[in-house]
Amino acid sequence: SLRHTCEQGDGLSRYGWLMHDGENFGVQEIHDGDLFLKTEFVKRPGGEHGGDWSWRITARMEGTGSPAPLLSLFFYVATDGQGTLEPHLENKTRLAAVTGTSEELGRFTLTFLHPTVESGEDPKYASYNYLDAASPGLHRLTEVVRSSLSNRFVFSPRGKSRRRFFAVDTFRGLPGEPPRGRLLLHQVTLEPPGMVEVTFE
């Protein structure tokens, strides 16, 4: 399933903030069937745009056999009428960072770190996909992503079986609305457990 939000009635067994102060830090847990996600953010005050922050997602499966189902995490960076975004690619498929400007944030850099095992020490094998698309508006980003998915991609860690998965591929536009901005999307596909971190400066 493709989820962009946690909503009552979605069949999630549990989700919510464990602790937060509404501004500088927060810890949230999401239980979706056998999938457990924990998101954590910490913000450091200062700078011209309200402070720098980092965000970490930890994923693990509970009560499933081996191999665990593949998990794809999608990270969106989008403009809607104003601002600029510049992608910085690694090996033509991994969006390593985005630099940009906006009226509210000024100049900024968003960096996507390589996934690690749950302890955060060792690197974790992952497949990467990237989408650069004209956006018809923030309210239609889910449609943009759904219409760009393809199952032609193969997850192939060394020494393990190869598995097909859905990933963003090509976006050909949506009927009805002209582009209003730009969407850059970073997709990380891995076999849980694992951890992904994003930093904003």
Automatic annotation (TrEMBL):
Keyword hit for Endoplasmic reticulum:
yes
Name the catalysed reactions.
N(4)-(alpha-D-Glc-(1->2)-alpha-D-Glc-(1->3)-alpha-D-Glc-(1->3)-alpha-D-Man-(1->2)-alpha-D-Man-(1->2)-alpha-D-Man-(1->3)-[alpha-D-Man-(1->2)-alpha-D-Man-(1->3)-[alpha-D-Man-(1->2)-alpha-D-Man-(1->6)]-alpha-D-Man-(1->6)]-beta-D-Man-(1->4)-beta-D-GlcNAc-(1->4)-beta-D-GlcNAc)-L-asparaginyl-[protein] + H2O = N(4)-(alpha-D-Glc-(1->3)-alpha-D-Glc-(1->3)-alpha-D-Man-(1->2)-alpha-D-Man-(1->2)-alpha-D-Man-(1->3)-[alpha-D-Man-(1->2)-alpha-D-Man-(1->3)-[alpha-D-Man-(1->2)-alpha-D-Man-(1->6)]-alpha-D-Man-(1->6)]-beta-D-Man-(1->4)-beta-D-GlcNAc-(1->4)-beta-D-GlcNAc)-L-asparaginyl-[protein] + beta-D-glucose
UniProt domain Glycosyl hydrolase family 63 N-terminal: residue ranges: 2-118
The record's Gene Ontology biological-process terms are:
oligosaccharide metabolic process; protein N-linked glycosylation
Residues spanning the membrane = none
Read off the InterPro entries from this record.
Answer: Glyco_hydro_63N, Glyco_hydro_63N_sf, Glycoside_hydrolase_63
Localization terms from the record: Endoplasmic reticulum membrane
Q: What is this entry's stated membrane topology? A: Single-pass type II membrane protein
Q: What class of enzyme is it?
A: hydrolase
Output one GO MF annotation.
Glc3Man9GlcNAc2 oligosaccharide glucosidase activity
The keyword Methyltransferase is annotated on this UniProt entry? no
Question: What EC number is given for this enzyme?
Answer: 3.2.1.106
Q: Which UniProt keywords apply?
A: Endoplasmic reticulum, Glycosidase, Hydrolase
Cellular component (GO) terms are:
endoplasmic reticulum membrane
Per the entry, what this protein does is:
Cleaves the distal alpha 1,2-linked glucose residue from the Glc(3)Man(9)GlcNAc(2) oligosaccharide precursor.
State the family it belongs to.
Belongs to the glycosyl hydrolase 63 family.
Protein name (Swiss-Prot/TrEMBL):
Mannosyl-oligosaccharide glucosidase
Q: What is the lineage of its organism?
A: Eukaryota, Metazoa, Chordata, Craniata, Vertebrata
The gene for this chain is Mogs_1
